[in-house]
Amino acid sequence: MKLKGKKIIQLASTDFEDLELWYPVLRLREEGAIVHIVAEKKGEKYIGKYGVPVESDLTFEEVNPDNYDALLVPGGWSPDKLRRYESILSMVRSFNEGNKPIGQICHAGWVLISAKILNGKTVTSTPGIKDDMENAGAIWVNEPVVVDGNLVSSRRPPDLPDYMREFIRVMTEK
User: What residues does the DJ-1/PfpI domain cover (predicted)?
Assistant: First the structure.
């Protein structure tokens, strides 16, 4: 178990992409990580785009980024909601400043754009937000997974195995 004892935040909001939230959570738990689902309300059930629910463990305000080793942002339509919370943007900046792994897939790049941490970074995402990523100063490439320092980005559900392989690798090197 490569990640035994590591603590990871998985952000959640309504309309997350079901596989992009659950696949990383399950994969990281298989590696021994403690993954907390963090959302606006504690103990609330949030429903993914395809109807798969997730229940939150903690609220955005309850978590202290200093107590966690990594952060995951799911895709779907939830990133458009998540980026509206200053507490989320502050959390993303804290992880970035601490050089802690941040995983983002699909539309999750919107959260990193709003946190203003992409300037000069090489990333990928769903092609639908390529212009947004480039307008934020990122160098966008069409690859299954891209690692630039502490940022691990991926495009969409078929890329999840590559995404998690690289995310776990980055976590074990930190």
Answer: 6-168
